[in-house]
């Protein structure tokens, strides 16, 4: 599915509630890892985009609909998870990798070559 | 003496006020403090109860469901992300740790027939009503 199809999904779900997914961000030597909680989101309904160093994640939750049942108690709503993060300039945005499992979206943002710490060895001169 | 429940409520002038207070507390429980974990939606009809819970980031085997008569308990542990020694944490919003939550169901359920599935971080438990708790129709015969 290409990007324009996905934005159509978002605009056709415009009446849904929008939530901020909880996120953790970790920095490793070569990459930055973003974890976002998106329960009820199928991998087909996720859109990740990068524009002007802003990473936007969007996930549409599957709606709960049980025919012939009456809702007795509600403590969460279903809708759309959406959140934007501004990235430092040293992220290689062409190699971003994302996967979702058990409702956790995991995005690996690799650092650009020049941003990686370099080790300079000092040689002793005789 | 047999009092109808309705009559009791009417006779208590503070009943409505307490109800309002309860509603207000419920409102703030869910939105400000986040409420109990996991958040659940409960659906029911005469035959079954369906309970959905948002528990992202677990494995199927890490969720324990126990059912006894009309009590359901969900237990599990949200494990922390394994980190390498040189990893720096820049932001931490997701919670972790053990959780347990119990529910009293509106009728007894058949614990043998309870089924559960865990998909995309949402647990769905289907609890069929036990035969003995189903309402029985009593025919009135004219003499």
Main features:
heterodimer; A: 126 residues; mainly beta; Immunoglobulin-like; four-stranded antiparallel beta sheet; 1 helix; 9 strands; 47% strand; elongated; B: 143 residues; alpha+beta; 2 domains; three-stranded antiparallel beta sheet; 2 helices; 17% helix; 36% strand
CATH class of the largest domain in chain B: Mainly Beta
Biggest chain pair interface: A-B, 32 and 38 residues
Main sheet of chain A, how many strands, which sense, barrel? 4 strands, mixed
- Radius of gyration of chain B, in Å, reads 21 Å
Contiguous low-pLDDT stretches of chain B (5 residues minimum) are: none
Span of the ends, CA to CA of chain A: 63 Å
Strand percentage of chain B lies at 35-45%
The percentage helix of chain B is 10-25%
Number of domains of chain B: 2
Q: Please provide the ordered H/E string of secondary-structure elements of chain B.
A: HHEEEEEEEE
Q: Strand order of the main beta sheet of chain B, please? A: 1-2-8-7
Q: What this model shows, in words?
A:
The complex is a heterodimer of chains A (126) and B (143). Chain A has a single domain (3-115), classed as Immunoglobulin-like (Sandwich), CATH 2.60.40.790. Chain A is 8% helix and 47% strand. Chain A contains 1 helix and 9 strands, in the order H-E-E-E-E-E-E-E-E-E. Chain A has one helix at residues 3-12; strands at 17-19, 23-27, 31-37, 41-51, 54-61, 70-74, 79-86, 97-101, 104-110. In chain A, the strands form 2 sheets. In chain A, strands 1-7-5-4 form a 4-stranded mixed sheet, covered by helices on one side. In chain A, strand 4 and strand 5 form a beta hairpin. Chain B has 2 domains: 7-35; 37-80 and 96-133, Immunoglobulin-like. Chain B is an alpha+beta fold. Chain B is built from 2 helices and 8 strands. Helices cover 17% and strands 36% of the residues of chain B. Chain B has helices at residues 5-11, 15-31, and strands spanning 40-44, 48-54, 63-68, 71-78, 88-92, 97-104, 115-119, 122-128. Strand 2 (23-27) of chain A pairs antiparallel with strand 5 of chain B, so a sheet runs across the interface.
């Amino acid at each position: 599915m290409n990007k324009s199809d996905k934005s159509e999904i978002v605009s056709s779900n415009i009446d849904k509630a929008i939530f901020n997914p909880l996120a953790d961000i970790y920095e490793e030597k070569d990459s930055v890892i973003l974890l976002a909680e998106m329960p009820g989101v199928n991998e087909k309904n996720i859109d990740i985009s990068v524009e002007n160093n802003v990473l936007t994640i969007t996930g549409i939750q599957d709606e709960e609909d049980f025919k012939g049942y009456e809702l007795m108690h509600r403590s969460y709503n279903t809708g759309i998870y959406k959140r934007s993060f501004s990235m430092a300039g040293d992220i290689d945005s062409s190699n971003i990798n994302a996967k979702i499992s058990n409702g956790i979206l995991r995005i690996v943002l690799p650092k650009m070559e020049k941003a990686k710490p370099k080790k300079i060895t000092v040689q002793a001169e005789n | 003496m047999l009092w109808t429940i309705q009559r009791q409520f009417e006779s208590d002038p503070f009943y409505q006020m307490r109800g309002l207070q309860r509603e207000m507390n419920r409102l703030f429980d869910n939105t400000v403090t986040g409420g109990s974990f996991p958040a659940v939606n409960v659906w029911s009809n005469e035959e079954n109860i369906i309970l959905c819970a948002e528990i992202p980031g677990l494995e199927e085997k890490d969720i324990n469901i126990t059912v006894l008569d009309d009590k359901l308990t969900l237990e599990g542990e949200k494990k922390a992300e394994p980190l390498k020694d040189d990893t720096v944490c820049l932001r931490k919003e997701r919670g972790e740790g053990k959780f347990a939550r119990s529910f009293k169901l509106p009728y007894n359920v058949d614990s043998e027939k309870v089924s559960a599935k865990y998909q995309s971080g949402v647990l769905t438990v289907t609890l069929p009503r036990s035969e003995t708790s189903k309402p029985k129709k009593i025919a009135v015969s004219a003499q």
